[in-house]
Amino acid sequence: MHPQLQVVADEYRSAQGRLHELARVVPAERWGRRTDPDRWSVAECVAHLNLTSTAYLPLLREAFDRARALNAPAPSRYRRDPVGWLLWKTMGPPVRVRTKTIARSRYGRLIFDRHEPPFVS
3-class SS at 50? Predict the structure, then answer.
């Protein structure tokens, strides 16, 4: 695997490990509780990250398919376009710029009322 792609794969595995550790140490009753009405619960944060990642999967699969169809060697170095660079620079870690996302209610409080750590596999 290309070294830059290996870094991305390693980061995803590391995030999964951190999620498993979070599930281990955070009591089940805390997952759905907000510490502030204007802030997300642990479960809502995890759901947001998973839903966002899931939304990108079709785009990534299409990009992989297009790259395979080119039948060309991998570049020696991958580069971000300006939008990709801006996202990378601001999203962190550490987070440098906080932004609003879609309405919190879209993540469905009903999912979290069970007080179970969601999406931990």
Answer: helix
